[in-house]
Specification:
Aspartate Aminotransferase, domain 1, Aspartate Aminotransferase, domain 2, 2 domains, 14 helices, 13 strands, globular, disordered C terminus, binds pyridoxal-5'-phosphate
Length: about 375
């Protein structure tokens, strides 16, 4: 038999796990529940129809970078645009983590650890403290030695809690000599937080942003980094040329001409998050953790059974109970008001069933297909 050509450490690596589940109410990927508003959507598609398909696009989505620079009031030379911020996570590990260290808390966004392992960086994961607080002292002592990349999701994911500005400044300053501090602000718009001032003031820091959440463009795949221009030059070397297509650029450039929809929708999602959180806190057997994002982390006891029971009622949420410290947890994206009503009604019924005398404790009516969906 032929010897396996894949590196043994890659062979042993788990793949990014996500199972798409069909359901009428989709609350499993922290997406926007609404597509782009009309007439903006039609205008963007008209621009796509006019794209020159036989030509290569700009090497690093330069037109998109210019629009982002205006939006963010950031020097265009410091804007790095890629196919989703995932791609930047990989580029950053290539440019600053390979053969060095990758530091993050656990649990955190799973891609940091996956890319560290894939690219042979030494992974250092520090468990979150009680209440999902940042383990500040432990992180500072890690930053005291070695060099590499420190991924800090702010707000945190998948726990959904805020990171204090004081902690972000402290950690960025502590790592400034040898560590690249990556402030992942994927959910920043829902927390009304913006750590670009840290990137402006502290060397070796980067802010990651995405069009997948607040901008309602998860299907388009576009993300970007804000960095100092002299750092961005090197990050771009780790991003393949021509990787953002002319079609993506046409869509995003149009949307950036008129991004006013983002603010009003974020406000609605935030109001819904508070409403759903309050309703779920009233239910027996459900613990709702504080969130400043577009999702809620909830502890329900038997996460597998409840995930299955919700799926049987046409609602898909995400299991998180495989992650350290998140036993019994599910993650629920905030949807449209109707979708959120459906979730609250289903959980109200299921928790009432579970609370009946003689019930096993877990919500009843688990269906045959209790498939997992991990990320
Ligand atoms: C914390 C965090 N960072 C980055 C991403 C990736 O975003 P993108 O769609 O831009 O690749 C996600 C996606 O869920 C996320 O949760």
């Amino acid at each position: 038999m032929a010897r396996m050509a894949i590196r043994p450490d890659v062979e042993a690596l788990p793949a990014y796990r996500f199972k798409a589940l069909d359901a009428a109410v989709k609350l499993d990927q922290n997406e926007s529940p609404w597509d782009l508003p009309e007439p903006l959507r039609s205008r963007a598609l008209e621009r796509v129809a006019r794209a020159e398909l036989h030509r290569y696009p700009a090497m690093h989505a330069d037109g998109v970078a210019e629009r982002i620079a205006e939006l963010e009031r950031w020097p265009v030379e410091g804007v790095v645009v890629t196919n989703g911020s995932n791609v930047l996570i990989q580029a950053i590990v290539i440019a600053a983590g390979l053969g060095r260290r990758v530091l993050s808390v656990a649990p955190s966004f799973s891609l940091y650890a996956l890319q560290a392992r894939l690219l042979n960086a030494e992974l250092r994961e520090v468990p979150l403290a009680a209440g999902f607080a940042l383990p500040l002292e432990a992180l500072l002592s890690e930053l005291d030695q070695g060099d590499g990349v420190h991924f800090l999701a702010a707000p945190m994911a998948p726990t959904g809690n805020a990171v204090s500005a004081e902690d972000v400044w402290t950690l960025a300053r502590a790592g400034a000599n040898g560590w690249l501090t990556v402030i992942d602000e994927a959910y920043g718009p829902f927390a009304a937080s913006d750590f670009s001032s840290v990137v402006r003031d502290v060397p070796n820091t980067v802010s990651l942003r995405t069009f997948s959440k607040a901008f309602a463009m998860g299907g388009v795949r576009l993300g970007y980094a804000l960095a100092a221009p002299d750092l961005a030059v090197h990050l771009r070397k780790a991003v393949l040329p021509f990787t953002v297509s002319a079609l993506q650029a046409a869509l995003v450039e149009t949307v950036l001409e008129d991004p006013a929809y983002v603010r009003s929708r974020v406000d609605l999602i935030v109001a819904e998050r508070e409403r759903v959180g309050a309703a779920l806190r009233d239910l027996p057997g459900i613990e709702v953790f504080p969130s400043v994002t577009n999702f809620l982390l909830v502890r329900v006891g038997d996460a597998a059974a409840l995930h299955g029971a919700l799926l049987a009622r046409g609602i898909v949420v995400r299991r998180q109970d495989h992650l350290p410290g998140l036993a019994g947890c599910l993650r629920v994206s905030i949807g449209t008001p109707d979708e959120n009503d459906a979730l609250v009604a289903a959980l109200t019924a299921l928790t009432a069933l579970a609370a009946q005398p003689g019930a096993a404790g877990a919500p009843a009516a688990a269906p045959e297909r209790t498939e997992e969906s991990h990320a």
